[in-house]
Amino acid sequence: MTPLAELLAERIRRYGPLTFADYMRECLYHPVHGYYSKAEQTRFADYYTSADVHPIFGRLLAGQFAEMWESLGRPEEFTVVEAGAGVGRLATHVLDFCATKLPAFYDSLRYVAVERSAPRSEQAIANLKRHATAGHFAGSAEIPARIAAGCLFSNELIDALPVHRVVVESGALKEIFVDFRDGRFLSATAPLSTCAIAEYFATQGVVLQEGQCAEAGLEASDWITEVGRRLERGYVLTIDYGHHAAELFDDHHMRGTLLAYQNHRVSEDFYVSPGEQDLTAHVNFTALETWGKRSGLETAGFTSQTAFLLALGQGNEFADLYDEGQTEAERVRARLQLKTLIHPEGMGERFQVLLQQKGSVRRGLTVCGDVSRPD
Ligand SMILES: C[S@@+](CC[C@H](N)C(=O)[O-])C[C@H]1O[C@@H](n2cnc3c(N)ncnc32)[C@H](O)[C@@H]1O
């Protein structure tokens, strides 16, 4: 039993089974024992993200943010809010690149790194002191209440938001709760804890089959609506792995998409070592679009990371991949890292990019031309 397992078992003994969303929230975000509350270094043992692969990911994004700024008519202040910014690795890549290569945009840029985990946020603030002193960076636990003009960006945030789990039993939608009996955690089905779960599926026209398990990402839906409320004019750019509802809840996903990651091993043992393994569920892009519309976010495009990065990098043949003074061996390594980001069998096709926009924009973005609109 991990320390968090002891706490959760005691909570269940006193108050009854937990929704999976509550269980997942504690496992990932408990202030002391949560997976994301621990030292960031340990996570490379479990997973890495595009931002960890090579700074080119952030450099290409910097170019995208600059184009957004242009498309909004070069507002005096352009705010990039990165939600789930971790220790600020991507923020460093974006801001360093803007400061040296895009000085006019950098003058207008205010980058806010939003991070729920206090130790990670503190690390981000320490790592980005130079840009903070120059007035271009701030760390925050919350998305700013008002973003006059800018872009709300996230990479691998939504898959880490807590989800409810459901299953269809004898034709009825039931919720899968987490119980603790005979010294171990186990799943127990019962009526839904909130009617918002039934509404979640009905709104998207999703009818699950007998025996099918699925996740309801209520927190992600509320999150995107709130983001739309706070953004007055600009874009929401989401990069994550997932599908539209028609695919996410089809025959190929009868067990749902929830997975546990530990030591680069993937499993469905969600109850092993609470707080010491990562838990993720595939993102439902239909839900992000549907709940985004409620606060004025219109879908501008949807594509794979492959197409997105190619559209951003092909113009100058990925010249920004290289740093001055690099040896040929280092340049070869950089090309291999780029391949990891772009190759369809690497991260390229696994990750999807959703672009939403709100308010008047002067012209579309280059990537929108290559981005197919979903039905
Ligand atoms: C999988 S990590 C991705 C980190 C980073 N975006 C990257 O690409 O390396 C997810 C991060 O989102 C943070 N997070 C989760 N929910 C959040 C929320 N509601 N607001 C801000 N950060 C959140 C977690 O603490 C964690 O650092």
Class derived from helix and strand content: alpha/beta
The first-level CATH class of the largest domain is given as Alpha Beta
Give the rounded overall mean pLDDT: 93
| Ligand species | S-adenosylmethionine
The strand count comes to: 16
- Helical fraction equals 25-40%
CATH fold-level assignment of the largest domain:
Rossmann fold
Number of domains: 2
Q: Spans with pLDDT under 50 lasting ≥5 residues?
A: 369-375
Overall geometry comes to: globular
Strand content: 15-25%
Q: How many strands, what sense, and barrel or not for the largest sheet?
A: 8 strands, mixed
The Rg value, from CA coordinates, equals: 21 Å
CATH architecture verdict of the largest domain: 3-Layer(aba) Sandwich
- The number of distinct helices, counting runs of at least 4 residues, comes to 16
Write the layout of secondary structure elements.
Elements: H1 3-15, E1 18-19, H2 20-29, H3 50-53, H4 56-71, E2 78-83, H5 89-101, H6 103-108, E3 109-114, H7 118-127, H8 129-133, E4 137-140, E5 150-155, E6 164-169, E7 172-181, E8 184-190, H9 195-203, E9 213-216, H10 218-230, E10 234-243, H11 245-248, E11 259-262, E12 265-267, E13 278-280, E14 283-284, H12 285-293, E15 298-304, H13 305-313, H14 328-342, H15 344-348, E16 351-358, H16 366-370
Parallel strand pairs: 2-3, 2-5, 3-4, 5-10, 10-14
Antiparallel strand pairs: 1-7, 6-7, 6-9, 7-8, 10-16, 11-12, 11-13, 15-16
Helix pairs in contact: 4-5, 10-12
The structure holds S-adenosylmethionine.
Structural commentary:
There is one protein chain. This protein is α/β, with parallel strands linked by helices and 375 residues long. The protein has 2 domains: 3-35 and 163-214, no CATH class; 37-161 and 217-254 and 282-370, 3-Layer(aba) Sandwich (Rossmann fold), CATH 3.40.50. The chain has helices at residues 3-15, 20-29, 50-53, 56-71, 89-101, 103-108, 118-127, 129-133, 195-203, 218-230, 245-248, 285-293, 305-313, 328-342, 344-348, 366-370, and strands spanning 18-19, 78-83, 109-114, 137-140, 150-155, 164-169, 172-181, 184-190, 213-216, 234-243, 259-262, 265-267, 278-280, 283-284, 298-304, 351-358. The strands form 3 sheets. Strands 2, 3, 4, 5, 10, 14, 15 and 16 form an 8-stranded mixed β-sheet that branches. Strands 1, 6, 7, 8 and 9 form a 5-stranded antiparallel β-sheet that branches. Strand 6 and strand 7 form a beta hairpin. Helix 4 crosses helix 5 and helix 10 (218-230) crosses helix 12 (285-293). The longest helix is centred in the N-terminal third of the chain and has 16 residues, at 56-71. The termini are far apart. Residues 369-375 have low confidence and may be disordered. The chain binds S-adenosylmethionine.
